[in-house]
Write a structure and sequence with these properties.
heterodimer; A: about 140 residues; alpha/beta; Rossmann fold; five-stranded parallel beta sheet; 5 helices; 5 strands; about 15% strand; globular; B: about 450 residues; alpha+beta; Beta-Lactamase; Helix Hairpins; 4 domains; five-stranded antiparallel beta sheet
Chain lengths: ~140, ~450
């Protein structure tokens, strides 16, 4: 079963995605800021992380930087889920290793699910190829 | 000396010359009277002339002081320089502006800003490094042309400078250079207002998007996962309406954000070389179902696919074509919408023509303005047709891309023809940026 770590501070948004993912049969864990997200990584071992950018305590970019610096967590695919559609931020999160950016207000939950599946498939394939770096 | 005294003096002199007590001949008397008369006439003229001069002087003083107080009451700074160039006149406003920066640093508190006589060199020094005022003045004198500096940071303030040469045309037609006039406007408040207006708009739009996303997402999920539970037809329709309302609201908010970001120059264009035909096909694919539902034919003319490549931001140009075709579908009830293409040596054109409602000549000039729907008054606005920002946004995008957008032709009841142009791709401009794999529903993939 696919395990998703959803790092999002707004209850309106995380409750919605949590329901959508559960209805699709994903196991979902919610963290309300980057620090809580990092704390939950080890025990939960997600297959994919959905990460908001603007959050209190620790924002999404900081969390992304930290988890990509850790050997244990650096290969978990990260999908940025945000409403900040700024070219500078896009460039920054891609250079830090995010796999995809989804603008929340442009996307409905079932589209998000579709994109999550496509990222999972893509990373699974690249991990199966012999040339892929081992983790 | 009054004229009567002169008469007496002259008579005494004559008496003295002829000897005391001697009889003064009549001729002498007549002569004496003549002299006195002409002197009196002369004196009258002189008095009149003096009165005139006094009047003129008063008038001159009055008009000069009027000019000075006019200059001093201006809230715009005024500096006049001669051809040397050196400052010959400054008004109160500019003195206050200049003193505001110096008083904090070097000038003693007691100095009355009104009395300070400014030298050009010290003004020039105060404005550096933002503006080289003296050089600008010399340039203005040399070229006889005005210069403008729109945003000059000056301590805590923002100034707008305008430097214009002063030339006096003489009676013989020759022009004499008098110097330059420098107008200084403090635009700080205006800048602060503009910024807070822009910030309000983008913050408000961002904050609006989050709850709207939740409304739309939840409504969509109810429709998808709980369709079976929605046995009541009205209830199902209400959920569908909630969903549609949120979709419409989000697109309005996005339009607001787009327009404000484009106006503020916050949108960075990512130019790449691409075929307009491809983008047109994408738009046709996305809007096909909408046209099918209305019974309107959406046609992509082969000419659109064969036009030369252009250099522009592909996603933004797609937005323009989408807006034009989307607009056409809104105002076309039957017939067809056609996307065609053509090109000349410099530009590639995309033309969107429809067989829709069309517009009268009077309402055509309102197109491409902010919030305008051609021909609509506030009360007759058709809110289902959108905010009226679509064409305005399209215009900003096309102009930022070096092209032009416009209405080619429109007739009420016959339909409209819109077109836009983009510069043809040249080999000197870079191709697609690395991580620009944007898809229709906007997620961006990291390659």
């Amino acid at each position: 079963m696919v395990k998703i770590l959803l790092v999002e501070d707004d209850p309106l948004i995380y409750r919605m995605y949590q329901k959508a993912f559960t209805l699709e049969g994903f196991t979902t864990e919610v963290a309300v800021n980057g620090q809580e997200g990092l704390d939950k990584l080890e025990a939960f071992k997600p297959d994919i992380i959905l990460l908001d950018i603007m959050m209190p305590t620790m924002n999404g970019i900081e969390m992304l930087t930290k988890l990509k610096a850790e050997l244990k967590t650096k290969d978990i695919p990260v999908v940025i889920l945000t409403n900040v559609s700024d070219a500078g931020i896009t460039h920054e999160v891609f250079s830090k290793g995010a796999n995809m950016i989804i603008v929340k207000s442009e996307t409905e939950p079932d589209q998000v699910i579709g994109w999550i599946n496509s990222v999972l498939e893509k990373t699974k394939k690249s991990n199966e190829t012999p040339s892929a770096p081992e983790s | 000396m009054p004229p009567a005294n002169y008469h007496k003096l002259l008579a005494e002199q004559i008496q003295k010359a002829l000897g005391p007590g001697a009889h003064i001949p009549d001729d002498y008397q007549t002569l004496l009277q003549l002299i006195s008369k002409s002197y009196m006439a002369f004196d009258q003229d002189r008095q009149q002339a003096e009165a005139k001069v006094a009047l003129r002087t008063d008038q001159l003083i009055a008009s000069t002081s009027r000019a000075y107080s006019f200059l001093d009451s201006l809230n715009m700074g005024f500096i006049m320089c001669d051809v040397n160039p050196e400052v010959v006149l400054t008004n109160l406003s500019v003195k206050h502006m200049l003193a505001a920066k110096t008083s904090s640093a070097e000038q003693p508190e007691t100095t009355q800003p009104d009395d300070t006589e400014w030298k050009l060199d010290s003004i020039d020094k105060l404005l550096r490094p933002e503006v080289q005022l003296k050089e600008l003045i010399l340039e203005s004198l040399a070229t006889n042309k005005p210069f403008e500096r729109k945003e000059v940071n000056f301590g805590q303030r923002v100034l707008h400078l305008f430097i214009a040469p002063m030339v006096n045309e003489e009676k013989n037609g020759e022009k004499q250079q008098l110097g330059v006039v420098i107008l200084v406007e403090d635009i700080t408040e205006q800048k602060v207002l503009d910024r807070s207006k822009d910030e309000f708009l983008s913050i408000a739009s961002h904050e609006l998007r989050t709850p709207l996303t939740a409304i739309r997402g939840n409504a969509a999920m109810i429709k998808k996962y709980y369709a079976a539970s929605l046995v009541d037809k009205d209830m199902a329709e209400m959920i569908a309406d909630i969903h549609e309302s949120s979709v419409r609201l989000i697109s309005i908010v996005n339009d607001f954000l787009d327009a404000s970001a484009l106006e503020q120059g916050k949108i960075r264009m990512n130019p790449e070389v691409f075929q307009l035909g491809e983008v047109a096909s994408d738009v046709v694919r996305e809007l096909q179902h909408l046209c099918d539902a209305k019974g309107v034919k959406l046609i992509q003319d082969p000419s659109a696919a064969t036009v030369p490549s252009v250099t522009a931001d592909k996603q933004r140009i797609k937005q323009v074509i989408y807006n034009l075709v989307g607009n056409a579908t809104k105002f076309t009830e039957q017939g067809s919408i056609t996307i065609s293409g053509r090109s000349d040596e410099q530009y590639v054109y995309i033309v969107v023509s429809d067989t829709g409602r069309g517009m009268s000549a009077e309402s055509q000039h309102l197109l491409f303005r902010k919030f305008q729907q051609a021909g609509s008054s506030l009360l007759t606005r058709d809110t289902t047709k959108g905010t009226g920002l679509g064409l305005y946004i399209s215009k900003l995008i096309v102009e930022l891309s070096g092209g032009k957008i416009g209405l080619e032709h429109s007739e009420p009841g016959q339909g409209s023809v819109f077109s836009f142009s983009l510069p043809r791709a040249s080999s000197t401009i870079p191709t697609a940026p690395e991580n620009a794999e944007l898809t229709n529903s906007i997620p961006q993939l990291n390659p």
